[in-house]
């Protein structure tokens, strides 16, 4: 097995195979989060900074418009999700439950569930599919607002240190090393941990993959 790093294992049961596939998909989605490396030494006209500024502008416009048509946006999102999962009964059941009982105060709980919301929104943010991002504008506004509220309610005198494991290609790792004192921009909501060892363990697992470097942010 060591001579074939792409081989994940030998499975004689469908359930075990499906479990491994699900694990691999989750890892791939985690690893593919887009990162912009903004180096202040390159000046304001460099391509990376333009991309960063565009993403920030789009976010601001999205949040403003979402506040004006919240009900319509929510209904549009539900209809879109039902269409995307029309042949998936289990996800359709969750979509119907979400559509009938959702409250903005529950937005973080819903987002952290391993269901259609997390999958669709993360993919749209990762590949910057603006049509889908716009469709999810109401949910994004609620999530952004609640996370902001949670951040402002904590005691400002307490320094909160959080950790995230991130898988980088060799090319991106070199960019990271050259970006000392620079800015990292993520076009997504990130899963993080207050436990350094948890993030470190995931980073070590990433380092075992071929052509991948696991880092702790």
Q: Radius of gyration over alpha carbons? A: 19 Å
> Could you estimate the helical fraction of the residues in percent?
55-70%
- List the secondary-structure elements in sequence, H or E: HEHHHHHHHEHEHE
User: Beta-sheet strand percentage?
Assistant: 5-15%
Strands, total number? 4
- Any idea what the shape is? globular
Q: Roughly what is the average pLDDT, rounded to an integer?
A: 79
Low-confidence stretches: none
Order of strands across the biggest sheet?
A: 1-3
CA-to-CA gap between the ends? Answer: 31 Å
Largest sheet: 2 strands, antiparallel
Quickly count the helices: 10
As for the number of domains, it is 2
Structural classification: mainly alpha
Give a verbal description of the structure.
There is one protein chain. Helices cover 59% and strands 8% of the residues. It is mainly α. The chain folds into 2 domains: 44-155, no CATH class; 159-216, no CATH class. It has a two-stranded antiparallel sheet. Helix 2 crosses helix 8 (137-153) and helix 3 (70-84) runs antiparallel to helix 4 (89-101). The longest helix is centred in the N-terminal third of the chain and has 20 residues, at 47-66. The mean pLDDT is 79.
Write a concise synopsis of the structure shown.
By secondary structure, the chain is mostly helical.
Looking at this protein, list some descriptive labels:
59% helix, 217 residues, globular, two-stranded antiparallel ribbon, 10 helices, mainly alpha
List the helices and strands and how they pair.
Blueprint: H1 14-31, E1 35-38, H2 47-66, H3 70-84, H4 89-101, H5 107-111, H6 116-127, H7 130-135, H8 137-153, E2 165-169, H9 170-178, E3 183-186, H10 196-207, E4 212-216
Antiparallel strand pairs: 1-3, 2-4
Helix pairs in contact: 2-8, 3-4
